[in-house]
Amino acid sequence: MYDPSVLADRFYSEGVISIGFQYPSDDTFEAINTLIEIVLSGNDRLFLLDTALTAVREIIFNAVKANLKRVYFRKLSLDINDPSDYSRGMEGFRDIANDFSLLHDELASTDRSVIFRMARGRGKIVFEIINNSEILKNEMERITVRIRKARECSNFAEAYETAYDPSEGAGLGIILIMLLMRNDGIDPENFSVSSKSGKAVSVFTLPLEVKKAEITTAIKEKILDDIDTLPTFPENIMELQALCGQHDVSFDLISSKIMLDPSLAAEVLKTANTAGFITSKRIDSINEAVIIIGLKNLRMILMASASRKIISRRFKRFEQVWDHCTKTASLARFMAIHYGLARIADSAFVAGLLHDMGKIVILSADQALMEKISDITGNRRLRSSTILEEVAIGISHSEIGAMMAKKWNFPEDLVDALKNHHSPLLANKRNSAMVMIVYLANILTMHGKKGFNPHIIESQVMDRFGLKRDRIAEELKKIMDRFERMRSR
Ligand SMILES: [Fe+2]
Ligand SMILES: [Fe+2]
What is the pLDDT of residues 165-192, one digit of tens each? Predict the structure, then answer.
């Protein structure tokens, strides 16, 4: 088990860190991720975190895969340098490439290993990933072609179609790295692969001064246009919101105004009955609901229901997104209280209710593209879909949600939560506890499912809530159990 803060101290004093391994365990990635997080945070460059983590992870996987390929060929007594043996071997290797653990034991009995090296340069951080498998001539040709093609492509879809090589089951990593670099305005020369004397070396240089590129795509244009032309909230909602802000307003007046709009009344009742607000009995009357929810909160709930209503009318229906949002909201509210942050529970709840509304906008603009993005995000266990959305569309669902929230005059903390629910370290310090809660709640909704990955949680978030790396799974399970118990009461 590595101690990332010790590694970081060493990096600061010596300017370089090396970590060697055969197989990248969750522990190894946690150490590397945390080290990168600490160093980028120290340089005020946390906005490069996703790019750095994704690129390093992809390069490490490629290096391990190259080693495994040799182990696999040896296991089958195939000569990797012989063209017909090579194509025979590659057929079976595809399964291994999808699940490294299949060759875990064989790998352990060899000296094949990978070294991750991170060095400080002037205004840059240099990542070097070295493995002891020399790259074959035909492999090098493929890599070179892939890099060149990825550089030439003007967008993600094109890069995916032209440079992805299904016969090798590989190549997407390199494309992804090239596209991420382009997205962050990093010169493609900063990535290179070379090989000599029994070793392969991939170098990824992260300049600390970058100018983010503005990516324009037809779908982005359409989305921006959609946001531009979104209607404002209906008259009655705006009137109710203003009433909620008044000092001496009567609850009866508010209830009667809500009841004039049956679908709004239904929505308010539904929200009041959502787990987290009440524990013992069902709320059947608007009057009761208004009292239980409270005026400040009612104002936010009106905001959430008006937004959902407008979105459902303007865009295609994607119930699974709303279901996920509702679950995130209840969890966020529960977690806020669990961590003694009752004062932010209501904002966290509403932020949860709307956090993925940008996804609906992308889904209705191009469902097939969004599905491809979700597939790749899941298969490669990326931290979130935002990074792919940025390279494929030029804007992420988080950013879209924040733009919509701004358009509807949401309070600043909600806009921040929508914008940073996948990048809580970038939130305004003032809102960071709330944004982190929504971020954690969103991750926790996957608990018990295949995509659940608590290892991606940033160390600053863990520290904020006293979560411990070595016990993260148990700690989160405990929270989930309590949440489920509360819900079933
Ligand atoms: Fe999201
Ligand atoms: Fe989400």
Answer: 655 555 678 888 888 898 888 998 999 9
| Ligand of minimum distance to the alpha carbon of 328 | 2
Q: How far is the CA of 459 from the centre of ligand 2 (A)?
A: 20
Closest ligand to C-alpha of residue 418 is: 1
Of 23, 52, 24, give the one whose Cα is nearest residue 177. 52
Q: By CB neighbour count within 10 A (0-12 exposed, 13-18 middle, 19+ buried), where does 250 fall?
A: exposed
Of the two residues 77 and 96, the one the predictor is more confident about is 77
Which ligand does the CA of 397 lie closest to?
Answer: 1
Question: How many whole angstroms from 204 Cα to the centroid of ligand 1?
Answer: 28
pLDDT at 465: 94
* CA–CA separation, 457 and 455 (whole Å): 5
For residue 115, the CA-to-ligand 1 centroid distance in Å is 33
216: CA distance to ligand 1 center in Å? 21
What are the extents of the domains in the chain? 4-207, 218-488
Whether pTM exceeds 0.90: no
Spell out the residues 6+ positions from residue 456 whose beta carbon is closer than 8 angstroms to its own. 33, 383, 443
Whole-number Å distance, alpha carbon 275 to ligand 2 midpoint, is 18
Neighbouring-strand partners of residue 124: 121, 207
If 0-12 CB within 10 Å is exposed, 13-18 middle and 19+ buried, where does residue 176 land?
buried
| CATH superfamily of domain region 4-207 | Histidine kinase-like ATPase, C-terminal domain (3.30.565.10)
For residue 140, report the distance from its CA to the centre of ligand 1, in Å: 37
Tell me which ligand sits closest to the C-alpha of residue 359: 1
Question: What CATH number matches the domain at 218-488, 3.30.930.10, 3.40.50.300, 1.10.10.10, 1.10.3210.10?
Answer: 1.10.3210.10
106-157 per-position pLDDT tens digit? 888 899 999 999 999 999 999 999 999 989 888 888 888 888 888 887 777 7
